[in-house]
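Researcher: We plan to redesign the surface later, but first we want a full-length starting point. Tokens attached.
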């Protein structure tokens, strides 16, 4: 890597993140920055099974085998993005855990200051994907992985419909403040959601998510499990976090599937 690129993509400093985020009363208990790993989600899931506490965070400077939804590969050049996984152990009912990746999406939009969420939790900027979120239940807790493209150039993007914060002229493109903003925004919403027993209305999570969801009002095609698809207008997010589509005069909730915004 050239000297310019080294200076353009400085390393994250674990001691500084720990000093700024680990404080009395915070949910964050441990933050570790790894030089390289296959998958921060896989690493943190293993630690969760070994009894890691809530608030454990792993960040990789380079991730070589990251996975997104539907087992899609997610990879980025070293220090060009944020590959972060966090562990929470909610007291809220497990039936409400499906809200956690949506909650992470709301926190991410606040942290980056641009774009909106394609249901359920992809960050889109001008219609292009800049980040994705993947959550999995492990040992009674939930591991949430976030992959954000920060300084990738056009020739480094993993797919034609992707983008990065630098390419979109985002207000903040320094990874350290982005990590701090993301974890603080997540903590605020997670605490409110958990204190409300996972109720998305009482915690205001539903309202905040709907404000940031760019899928609402769009004509979309939902690719459903089993190879089926459904096309309709996205009209609301229900209390279970499902996307409700208006289709043939009726309303159908979609709980899982890949959503495509249909250009008309």
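Model: Full-length starting sequence:
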């Amino acid at each position: 890597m050239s000297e310019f690129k080294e200076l353009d993509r400085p390393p994250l400093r674990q001691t500084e993140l720990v000093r700024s985020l680990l404080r009395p009363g915070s949910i964050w208990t441990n933050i570790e920055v790894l030089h390289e790993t296959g998958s921060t989600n896989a690493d943190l899931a293993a630690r969760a099974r070994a009894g890691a506490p809530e608030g454990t965070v792993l960040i990789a400077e380079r991730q070589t085998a990251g996975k997104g939804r539907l087992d899609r590969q997610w990879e980025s050049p070293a220090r060009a993005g944020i590959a972060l996984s966090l562990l929470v152990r909610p007291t809220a009912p497990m039936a409400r855990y499906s809200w956690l990746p949506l909650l992470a999406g709301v926190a991410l939009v606040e942290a980056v200051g641009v774009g909106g969420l394609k249901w359920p939790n992809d960050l889109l900027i001008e219609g292009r994907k800049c980040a994705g979120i993947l959550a999995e239940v492990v040992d009674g807790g939930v591991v949430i992985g976030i992959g954000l493209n920060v300084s990738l150039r056009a020739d480094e993007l993993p797919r034609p419909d992707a983008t990065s914060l630098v390419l979109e002229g985002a207000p903040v493109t320094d990874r350290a403040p982005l990590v701090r903003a993301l974890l603080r925004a997540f903590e605020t919403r997670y605490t409110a959601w958990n204190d409300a027993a996972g109720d998305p209305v009482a915690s205001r999570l539903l309202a905040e998510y709907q404000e940031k969801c760019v899928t609402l009002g769009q004509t979309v095609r939902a690719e459903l499990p089993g190879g089926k698809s459904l096309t309709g207008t996205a009209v609301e997010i229900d209390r279970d976090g499902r996307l409700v589509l208006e289709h043939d005069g009726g309303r159908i909730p979609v709980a899982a599937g890949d959503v495509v915004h249909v250009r008309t």
